[in-house]
Design brief:
Helices cover 66% and strands 0% of the residues. It contains five helices and no strands. Helix 2 runs antiparallel to helix 3. It is elongated, with a radius of gyration of 17 Å. The termini are far apart. The N terminus is likely disordered.
Length: 108
């Protein structure tokens, strides 16, 4: 048995609510810091680029807030499309995602 097999087999299938909230708090703080930095960029920054970055950060913040709601209502970690559990590895990388990888590909 390889180390990879042992790690995969012992891996939990879901994040706890506390772990999810910690990851979401970190993501929210990062995005708010990005918005603040964009706001302080000053007149030398290219307005179109800054506008696009702000829009992206605001969209992600909206997704993060929706994930907080899913933690509260118990649906966090379940794909909104197929209702299957989202793999914990995906939630560790993208804690605010509402979709498993196959369903995300279908919505793109």
């Amino acid at each position: 048995m390889s180390l990879d097999t042992t790690r995969t087999e012992s891996r939990r299938e879901r994040l706890t609510a506390h772990e999810a909230l910690q990851r979401l708090e970190h993501e929210r703080a990062s995005r708010l810091t990005q918005l603040q930095a964009i706001g302080q960029a000053g007149p030398d920054a290219e307005e179109q680029v800054m506008s696009a970055q702000k829009a992206t950060v605001r969209r992600v913040l909206t997704e993060i807030e929706a994930a907080f709601q899913r933690v509260q209502d118990g649906s966090y970690g379940t794909c909104r499309t197929c209702a299957k559990p989202i793999p914990v590895e995906r939630l560790e990388i993208l804690p605010y995602t509402p979709f498993c990888v196959p369903c995300q590909r279908n919505t793109a």
